[in-house]
Amino acid sequence: MKLNIALLAGDGIGPEVIDQAVKVSNAVAKKFGHEISWTPALTGAAAIDAVGEPYPDETHAICENADAVLFGAIGHPKYDNDPSAKVRPEQGLLKMRKKLGLFANVRPTFTFPSLINKSPLKRERIEGTDLVFLRELTGGIYFGEKGRRENGEVAYDNCVYSREEVTRLAKKGFEMAMSRSKKLCCVDKANVLETSRLWRETVQAMEKDYPEVTVSYEFVDAVAMRLVQWPNSYDVLITENLFGDILTDEASVISGSMGLMPSASLGEKTSLFEPIHGSYPQAAGKDIANPLATILSAAMMFEDAFGLKEEAEAIRAVVNRSLEEGYVTEDLSEGAKSYKTSEVGDWLASKI
Amino acid sequence: MKLNIALLAGDGIGPEVIDQAVKVSNAVAKKFGHEISWTPALTGAAAIDAVGEPYPDETHAICENADAVLFGAIGHPKYDNDPSAKVRPEQGLLKMRKKLGLFANVRPTFTFPSLINKSPLKRERIEGTDLVFLRELTGGIYFGEKGRRENGEVAYDNCVYSREEVTRLAKKGFEMAMSRSKKLCCVDKANVLETSRLWRETVQAMEKDYPEVTVSYEFVDAVAMRLVQWPNSYDVLITENLFGDILTDEASVISGSMGLMPSASLGEKTSLFEPIHGSYPQAAGKDIANPLATILSAAMMFEDAFGLKEEAEAIRAVVNRSLEEGYVTEDLSEGAKSYKTSEVGDWLASKI
Ligand SMILES: CC(C)[C@H](C(=O)O)[C@@H](O)C(=O)O
Ligand SMILES: CC(C)[C@H](C(=O)O)[C@@H](O)C(=O)O
């Protein structure tokens, strides 16, 4: 199979972790007889520095024509804490999501037995947790009309959803529930928001098409609590953009494996795969960043973008092996010998 | 001093826990030579059943004329999971907040040494946590224009904030920071939302009036993470209505003492005090509900509504004693002998 992949390394540790994912992907491709064509493109602060904007048209053209996009991380301290700056890396991210139609952000939270002691939660609370959020990513208050009136004294943000947008996301949720434990939780604030009532009634109407799926409806504040109390009571959760932003980040820290969590953003034309961690500028260029989340994102890419499940499993197997054998970067080594980012990448590629 | 208090017992376990708070408050009043006049009024499902709406005008008149409102809980299963029902108890809550101008919801999260083992977090993560959220309660997306268009196929909710609303809430935040550790965190989503940018610029402009307070600005998704990771790194946090709804609930479960957490909603005319737990309908009428959160809410009332700090401390002291001596309801007794709701109230009143 010929795999046409856009490569957006981005900022900070992005380029280093992406390098390792490329090594491992190439090794898998070789083993299974695929041919990958990688097309690098600029994004984030790196793109602002080079061409004055975070998601250049050329990058968009490359992504649009690719079968999948592998993404590192964006964000640079010089743009931090200045939300009023004219050009910000985040704008590139939002523009990219919108223009590529990446409407469904898939964010799993699962545990690795060897990392469970890193969780802030007690072992009995977190053990066995294996949940996945589907966050709507191209609508809601992120993209509604926003602005000021009354000489800047009043600000507003509009949250808008259409039944079609909800249906599209919920469909992915039902399908994912069918492929897992057949439990779906719709997270909303239907006791207060009209958009949430639309979400709830739309999902309720879809229940009859998936008679095997048990659907629950929970308010966002209740989910924020239960995620800390009984995370393993959840399986598939669907929610709107802003609730998803908050809850997926909350979920990411409960497992102790945050540095390993991959994600996918599924679209109509193409899909994007990226680690959930940020650009971690303090570590940039030091060859110490943990590449496993990016490598596991590449595994998701093989499975979800190309339907290559065996290839994905091959990657996951070597990642598990590196954890078991302690061939890991310093953040995971617990005082034992640790390895460089590039060494971990080489080792994993050689074990494929 | 003459204390004129409206008493809104509400639904479920509300009446039972309110009864105990009244006993303890009366005991304190007697000891310190105050005279309390309690005026009961209907609210919640109880009010819907009696007069067809959850916050009747008569109740509003009673609250408006009171120096403080002591509130139990509202919510009844027959109104649950039916967000489209014509009359819902929550509407009464929102109407009450708006009509009484209760703009600042004060939600502390602290730990009791004897309860720390109930926390889902590891001891070293939660020990020493003592933070307080100030949640804006009468603005934002809760009260903006909302509705449907295109034959109901599109729903919208508007989030609106004025500089004045932000200033009013932030002022309380700065004052509270001054009376505590002089650390204030402004929680927003200024990388995406215009209302958040107004929040941030307003708070930034106020910094010069409180030179002793160190202010940090964090995104809501980052706070959702750090609350689970390092809750004791926070002190006073200010935020808008919806973020506050989610984060205060998340914060409430981390300490292990959720069943004991009081809250206040401060307004221009009057203030309201209530436990953060819900109406817990399954326990209603059984004399088993834990009354301590309501009793600690009464302590907040003595201190914040009437400036009676000694009286508040007297209540807190007996509550601590009941925890130490194990004179508690079954949810806290850890298999040891437990006491009825009314017995705990009687005991506390007798020890004042
Ligand atoms: C950087 C920011 C705009 C973005 C978001 O809010 O969506 C980030 O928090 C995320 O979750 O990917
Ligand atoms: C019941 C609901 C409307 C309410 C809110 O969202 O404000 C509740 O969750 C709260 O936090 O008091």
UniProtKB/TrEMBL annotation, chains A, B:
Subunit relationships: Homodimer.
Annotated substrate binding sites: R97, R107, R135, D221
Catalytic activity: (2R,3S)-3-isopropylmalate + NAD(+) = 4-methyl-2-oxopentanoate + CO2 + NADH
Superkingdom of this protein's organism: Bacteria
Residues binding Mg(2+): D221, D245, D249
InterPro entries per the UniProt record, alphabetical: IsoCit/isopropylmalate_DH_CS, IsoPropMal-DH-like_dom, Isopropylmalate_DH
EC class of the enzyme, as a word: oxidoreductase
Role this protein plays: Catalyzes the oxidation of 3-carboxy-2-hydroxy-4-methylpentanoate (3-isopropylmalate) to 3-carboxy-4-methyl-2-oxopentanoate. The product decarboxylates to 4-methyl-2 oxopentanoate.
Gene encoding the protein: leuB
Native organism taxonomy: Bacteria, Pseudomonadati, Bacteroidota, Flavobacteriia, Flavobacteriales
Protein name (record): 3-isopropylmalate dehydrogenase
Residues at the site labelled Important for catalysis: Y142, K189
Keyword Transcription assigned: no
Family: Belongs to the isocitrate and isopropylmalate dehydrogenases family. LeuB type 1 subfamily.
Pathway: Amino-acid biosynthesis; L-leucine biosynthesis; L-leucine from 3-methyl-2-oxobutanoate: step 3/4
Matching PANTHER family: 3-ISOPROPYLMALATE DEHYDROGENASE
Entry annotated with the keyword Manganese: yes
Assigned keywords, A-Z: Amino-acid biosynthesis, Branched-chain amino acid biosynthesis, Cytoplasm, Leucine biosynthesis, Magnesium, Manganese, Metal-binding, NAD, Oxidoreductase
Subcellular localization(s) per the UniProt record: Cytoplasm
Cofactor note: Binds 1 Mg(2+) or Mn(2+) ion per subunit.
GO MF annotations, alphabetized: 3-isopropylmalate dehydrogenase activity
Gene3D superfamilies referenced in this protein's UniProt entry, alphabetically: Isopropylmalate Dehydrogenase
EC assignment: 1.1.1.85
Residue ranges occupied by any Isopropylmalate dehydrogenase-like domain in the UniProt entry: 4-348
Cofactor(s) essential for the protein: Mn(2+); Mg(2+)
